[in-house]
Design a protein that fits this description.
The complex is a heterodimer of chains A (about 260) and B (about 250). Chain A contains nine helices and ten strands. Chain A is α/β, with parallel strands linked by helices and about 260 residues long. Chain A has a single domain, classed as 3-Layer(aba) Sandwich (Rossmann fold). In chain A, β9 and β10 form a beta hairpin. In chain A, α3 crosses α4. The radius of gyration of chain B is 24 Å and the shape is flat. The longest helix of chain B is centred in the middle third of the chain and has 30 residues. Chain B has about 250 residues and is an all-alpha fold. Classes of the chains: A alpha/beta (about 260), B mainly alpha (about 250). At the A-B interface, α2 and α3 of A face α6 and α7 of B.
């Protein structure tokens, strides 16, 4: 399968020399949903920042459509790869929801008419049309999450990177987000500790620890391996434990493709 | 919160609205008669109320101005400019006639300008007014900083509220010199958070195409009503000082 985004031996060191990501390789195919799991400090958030060109890799390379992404193509990379940060508040920096969603299209110098179309489209996609004129600080956690998602979608990305997307959501918000992401049909990389969510949404997962790739493969196989999970500071999702309720949200939807 | 419903003044071109405000402010700040300053206050109130702002809203926004005026009214009557006569003959250092007139004039001018500012700024979203200022030639970095500061301040307040609640939950009362180290720690913590947040915000902006220059939407073309507003504002700005001279 051709890859939309590929990390090849990607590495990143913080300015103090500490290794955050090392020799990490994986691919994300068009339309694929890939889970990124690992304990705290595994390098998940840093990896997402590397994949959007916010951080420059110390080693290795990033490929978009099979071609290396040099500095001159960063704008293209950011337009095609959207990211939603862990804290939605970090993405909402203007005083009106519609302005926040319009931020990306305006920065990429789209015409006012096209910007308006993108804003309508993105807000509709996340079911947040009624929030258009609201002030970000008066939104609930779930509403902020939807607006942050809309602000990424307004650039019509081909892939979406989500950092802990369920961290401030109640069960209903979590269910709605899952349904929304399933409907989007975009390539999606979900970095999360919420393994039930990852299991329900992503057929394949990449497990990293200490900035290195541990394994990558079918979600049910990897997340269901209790010894592996415990060895890397995680826990097997409840729905994969023996005698778990087969109707549990995460239990029966994960269909795993072949490992890359 | 329900979206702000724009009155007729809020629906005008932001540049026109702010230009009229500037013209009137410059003109009314130079008024020298109590009667014309009173008329200016009446006009400002009329402008505010007719453009959809409620009397309670205006009064609430003027509250800090009243506090300032209280001090002004308390002290200025005791001012004795050359030619001033004491109001009470036996109390030479008491309130003077010119001091009292100055207090009245200053108060009316301050109230008129404050009400005018409320009418100019509260009739439309703040960011819209800032974009109007950009259209009037205010340097882009200033406007962009103000735009981002508005949201940053809201988040700063949220943080502060959370920290205050956390301190109160642990019995902190915030009184006396012993509270100073705690306040210092809170200020330091807020600063560190703000720096971290600014970094993340810049990352979020870069991910959405920001390359060091904020691109704002072009202001819409000014219509006939906007030009009429500017002309009416100009006439009004000239009328009161002219009337004072002719009187």
């Amino acid at each position: 399968m051709s890859s939309l985004l590929e990390a090849r031996d990607l590495g990143y060191r913080y300015p103090d020399g500490q290794v955050a990501v090392e020799g990490l390789s994986f691919t994300l195919a068009p339309g694929e949903r890939l889970g990124l799991v690992g304990p705290n400090g595994a390098g998940k958030s840093t990896l997402l920042l590397l994949l959007t060109g916010v951080l420059t890799p110390s080693e290795g390379e990033l490929l978009l459509d099979g071609e290396s992404v040099p500095k001159g193509r960063l704008a293209e990379l950011r337009r095609r790869i959207g990211i939603v940060f862990q804290h939605s508040d970090d993405m909402l920096f203007t005083s009106r929801v519609s302005d926040d969603v319009a931020f990306g299209p305006r920065q990429t110098r789209l015409s006012p008419d096209e910007t308006a179309i993108r804003v309508d489209e993105a807000l509709r996609a996340v079911g947040a049309e009624e929030l258009r004129e609201r002030v970000p600080q008066h939104l609930s956690g779930g509403e902020k999450r939807r607006v942050a998602l809309a602000s990424a979608l307004a650039l019509r990305p081909e892939a979406l990177l989500l950092d802990e997307p369920t961290s401030d959501l109640d069960p209903r918000g979590r269910r709605e987000l899952r349904a929304l992401l399933e409907d989007l049909e975009l390539a999606t990389l979900v970095a999360s500790h919420d393994l039930e969510f990852v299991l329900a949404l992503c057929p394949r997962v990449l497990l990293i620890d200490g900035g290195r790739r541990v394994t990558c493969g079918p979600s049910r196989e990897i997340l269901g391996d209790e010894a592996l999970m415990l060895a890397h500071g995680l826990e097997r999702p409840h729905s994969l434990t023996p005698h778990a309720d087969p109707h549990h949200p995460g239990g029966s939807h994960a269909h795993a493709p072949e490992e890359d | 919160m329900s979206p702000l419903r724009l009155g007729w003044l809020g629906q005008r071109d932001d540049r026109a609205r702010l230009l009229v405000f500037l013209l009137l402010a410059l003109s009314w700040a130079s008024l020298t008669k109590v009667s014309s300053a009173g008329l200016a206050l009446g006009l400002a109130l009329g402008l505010a109320l007719s453009s959809g702002l409620g009397p309670l809203h205006v009064a609430r926004r003027l509250r800090p101005v009243f506090s300032l005026l209280f001090l002004l009214l308390l002290l200025t009557p005791f001012w004795h400019p050359p030619g001033a006569q004491p109001l009470v003959a036996s109390w030479a250092w008491g309130p003077s006639d010119l001091g009292l007139a100055s207090a009245g004039l200053l108060s009316l001018r301050v109230l008129a300008l404050s009400t005018l500012a409320i009418a100019a700024l509260d009739v439309a979203p703040f960011d819209q007014s800032l974009q109007g200022l950009r259209g009037l030639g205010v340097p882009a970095p200033l406007v962009h900083t103000a735009l981002l500061t508005q949201r940053a301040l809201a988040r700063f307040r949220e943080d502060l509220t959370r920290i205050e609640a956390a301190l109160a939950a642990r019995g902190f009362r915030g009184r006396g010199p012993s509270a100073i180290p705690t306040y210092s720690a809170v200020a330091g913590g807020l600063l560190v958070r703000s720096v971290g947040r600014a970094e993340r915000l810049e990352q979020a902006m870069r991910c959405r195409g920001y390359e060091g220059e904020l691109i704002l939407p072009d202001p819409p073309r000014a219509g006939l009503a906007d030009w009429f507003l500017v002309l009416a504002g100009l006439a009004l700005a000239l009328a009161l000082p002219l009337a004072e001279r002719l009187a």
